[in-house]
Amino acid sequence: MPDVIVRKTVIFTEEVRHEYGPPPEVPPLRGAILSVIENPFAGGYAEDIQPFMEDLKPLGVEMAERLAATLGGADAIEGYGKGAIVGEAGEVEHGALWHAPGGYAMREALGGARAIVPSTKKVGGQGARLDVPVTHREASYVRSHFDAIEVGLPDAPRAGEMVVVLVMTTGPRVHARAGGLAVSDIEGKDGLR
User: Fold this and answer.
1) Residue 72 and which of 16, 66, 167, 191 are 20 to 30 A apart at CA?
2) What would the DSSP string read from start to end of 105-153?
3) CA separation for the pair 161, 67 (Å, rounded)
4) pTM over 0.85, yes/no
5) What's the pLDDT tens digit per position in 145-177?
6) Domain map of the chain by residue range?
């Protein structure tokens, strides 16, 4: 497979002070890292695309480590998600190649998190936006951490590119009060509860 060619990487963070309610003692952080890469399959159909997942692994690890560090380190991270926007000369299946490299990289960077890393993908042009889902890193049923982070770049993806995305949070939604499994009740057995 060809090398992964990165045109640029963007990291952004948000500090959430409140949403009408009282400010929390420690405002949760939300962040995303986006890498714009060349899509080696753009412009045609390739039957065997799976080997590119292996090529994407080092990029996934680098992105996960950089984002975790930006948000205060691996121990600070409570929620995560991943996604991809494929340029117009590609297909949605090319974005699916990010599932394993992005997900396993975050689990590794965070010390073996158990929950499945939620994901989304789509084909879109320059400036396309993507809502990347977020769940708790240890238990997918922790409702306070169900969230999404909207991402996109004004100049990407170009037709022959993909934007691969990782997102992380340092806590629940700022005023989470919709019930469900509490963080303090996580059993840590199966990534669900």
Assistant:
1) 191
2) HHHHHTTS--S---EEEEE--TT-EEEEEEEESS-TT-GGG-EEEEEEB
3) 22
4) yes
5) 999 999 999 999 999 999 999 999 999 999 999
6) 6-185
